[in-house]
Amino acid sequence: GLAEKLQNTLKKLRGKGKVTEADVAEAMREVRMALLAADVNLKVVKDFVARVKERAIGQDVLESLTPGQQVVKVVHDELIQLMGGTTSKLNMSSKPPTVVMLVGLQGAGKTTTVAKLGLYLRKQGRRPLLVACDVYRPAAVKQLQVLGNQLDLPVFSMGTGVSPVDIARGATEYAVAQGRDVILLDTAGRLHINEELMDELKSIKSTVKPHEIMLVVDAMTGQDAVNVADSFHKQLGLDGVVLTKLDGDARGGAALSVKAVTGCPIKFAGMGEKPDALEPFHPDRLASRILG
Amino acid sequence: VTGRTKIDDELYDELEEALISADVGAETSIELVERLRRKVKEQKISDPSLLQGLLQEEIAAILGGEAIPVNLGNQPTVILIVGVNGVGKTTTIAKLAHRWKQEGRKVLLAAGDTFRAAAIDQLEIWGQRVGVEVIRHQEGADPSAVAFDAVQAAKSRESDVLIIDTAGRLHNKSHLMNELSKINRVLDRAMPGAPHETLLVLDATTGQNALSQARIFGEAVGLTGLVLTKLDGTAKGGVILAIHSELQTPVKFIGIGEKMDDLRDFDPGEFAKALFG
Ligand SMILES: Nc1nc2c(ncn2[C@@H]2O[C@H](COP(=O)(O)OP(=O)(O)OP(=O)(O)O)[C@@H](O)[C@H]2O)c(=O)[nH]1
Ligand SMILES: Nc1nc2c(ncn2[C@@H]2O[C@H](COP(=O)(O)OP(=O)(O)OP(=O)(O)O)[C@@H](O)[C@H]2O)c(=O)[nH]1
Ligand SMILES: [Mg+2]
Ligand SMILES: [Mg+2]
Asked: What gap in Å lies between CA B222 and CA B69, rounded to an integer?
């Protein structure tokens, strides 16, 4: 991984007495290549490497007996700093029901994550309601109903002939009547550049005023993660991110890009297809994964 | 990359960064720009406005002059659709079925995803919309049994094409890759030579992990082509360059939307241009 590469690059400098700017430049190239290979966005990589370089030409690295180790430590520390702390708390409303809306590109894992969150919240003593707001994708409503059935969680649906805005509104009324204290809105996958569908999300937002809007992002997303996250954040305002399919072997650099460009915490990690495969996101684990 | 007056390092860096931003990958991007530098030197090119076009030509050439079509010469032609979760396999099958039905062919579908919630329902709805039959078993059935059954059905109905849907699966899950290999063997047993095409569906928003997907799915079942979906978004799918140079797997179709006619033949020239779009 990167740690090894950096150790090797800078190991040959031991006993040379002093690490030069050129040596550091070569080490920074290694960092850049490693982060790009891990799918971190190019602009995020440049900013990151600039910060690391600043610290790498500092006294504690240049005068160290093991400069390679020092640089690795700097990279690791900067990654942890950038990713932020562990925060898997959803913004809960003081007056129930709390409304949580999940949004994101097609196929990212929203419907599956809504079911997982329902199970997670019930284990915490909550009374969640899953809401089928995807009226477009064939059998999307049925998909959520099947998941709800498997987990013995209630699913609110008004079929596919009603607008998602009306479904969301109907769900909040139903939740109040039935004493459900968290509403989880599953929305249809959409492109950030589809004005009509982004307007639909804005409309749902202004109608039911979610306390938590989470962007669901596939861990294998490449350079485009920044465009998507930035656009969804600017248009809707995000409170958090869920990174899915972390049980794969993608390095997950998209996580860094999303955090860097939106500042939003990644709150949960999808670790599999089963309903219990949801964990609080651990930034330090992702940092190690990106370093490889 | 416009409005430049001379060819300098800055211009080459800009081109390299455009490729990286398109998910071509750092190593491949560096290689491509190195080749361009040599070409510029050899051909004594001095006009900076020509460079992007030269790079596009190089990329289109690497991807092969023309698309290699799907071979529909068997009766039935059996096509296996594979890929990781959520990339667009089921929707792509609907698009392919629609296209070939429009061409007057008899198409049959097989609901080989017996695992995910409402996966069979999803394909059945598409089947109804497109106007083709879907062979299915119950949820939780053995997908190999569905595949075998579908081949028998295709033969008895004298279908021209049989397209088999499979559950999304991550390539690092060996038991799931074994399940896929088994489906592959069962198809060959049901009809020697089948599947005649195995298409890996890749999501254009995927980064460098797509290369691992192509390698491992290729090792498990052998691929005859790729389908690159969601190119109607802002992602460029540049990783297919590395897949092509390492594995020679050709992209046969691209997905540009969620409707049944949002399918196009792969055009290397268009693709190369769009990388810089
Ligand atoms: N391995 C794995 N698969 C996942 C995970 N999360 C979701 N999936 C799978 O990814 C695929 C897509 O999940 P969906 O929940 O349908 O995605 P979606 O975002 O609702 O899709 P659209 O509604 O079409 O936009 C399914 O096959 C899921 O089982 C995860 O954390 N790990
Ligand atoms: N914008 C866009 N969306 C697409 C395209 N192809 C598929 N989709 C959408 O991507 C999502 C996932 O598509 P599916 O066909 O269910 O994907 P899949 O690979 O079968 O998913 P699993 O079976 O769960 O692994 C759906 O919302 C589709 O409408 C495309 O070319 N463009
Ligand atoms: Mg969904
Ligand atoms: Mg499917």
From this structure: 17
Q: Is A142 in contact with B121 (Cβ distance < 8 A)? A: yes
The rounded Å distance from CA A244 to ligand 3 centre is 13
Q: Which atom from ligand 2 is nearest to the alpha carbon of B88?
A: 17
For chain A, helix, strand, coil in percent to 5 are 50, 15, 35
Question: Do A55 and A62 form a contact (C-beta atoms < 8 A)?
Answer: no
Q: Look at strands B161-166 and A278-280 and give their pairing.
A: unpaired
Work out the angle between the directed axes of helices A253-262 and A225-236 (0-180°, nearest 10). Answer: 30
State pLDDT tens for residues A36-90: 999 999 999 999 999 999 988 876 776 777 777 788 888 888 998 998 887 778 9
Q: What gap in Å lies between CA B143 and CA A282, rounded to an integer?
A: 36
CA atoms of B144 and B135, how far apart (whole Å) = 13
The rounded distance, in Å, linking the Cα atoms of B231 and B87 is 12
Pairing of strands B77-82, B133-135: unpaired
Give Cα A139 distance to the centre of its chain.
26
Residue A263, Cβ density class (10 Å: 0-12 exposed, 13-18 middle, ≥19 buried): exposed
Could you tell me where the DSSP H helices lie in A124-180?
Answer: 140-151, 164-178
Average of pLDDT values for A128-132?
98
Residues of B in contact with A251 (CB under 8 A): 208-209
Cα–Cα dist A121/A100, whole Å: 12
Ligand 1 lining (C-beta closer than 6 Å): A 104, 106-112, 134, 137, 140, 188-189, 244-245, 247, 270-273, 277; B 85-86, 116, 168, 170
**Cis amide bond preceding A67, omega within 30:** no
Strands B251-255 and B263-265: antiparallel
3-class SS at A270?
Answer: strand
pLDDT digits (tens, 9 = 90+) for A163-177: 999 999 999 999 999
Which of A250, A228, A223, A252 lies closest to A238 in space, CA to CA?
A228
| Total residue length of chain A | 292
Name the token pair of A148: 């709800």
- Rounded distance between C-alpha atoms, residue A219 and residue A206, angstroms: 29
Q: Is the separation of the CB atoms in A67 and A280 below 8 Å?
A: no
- A191: nearest CA partner in chain B: B233
Contacts of A250 in chain B (CB under 8 A): 206-207, 209
CB neighbourhood size of B157 (10 A): 14
Answer whether A219's CB lies under 8 Å from A254's CB: yes
How far apart CA A255 and CA B259 sit, in angstroms, is: 30
Say which DSSP state B48 is in. G
- Is the pLDDT confidence value at B217 over 90? yes
pLDDT at A16 over 60: no
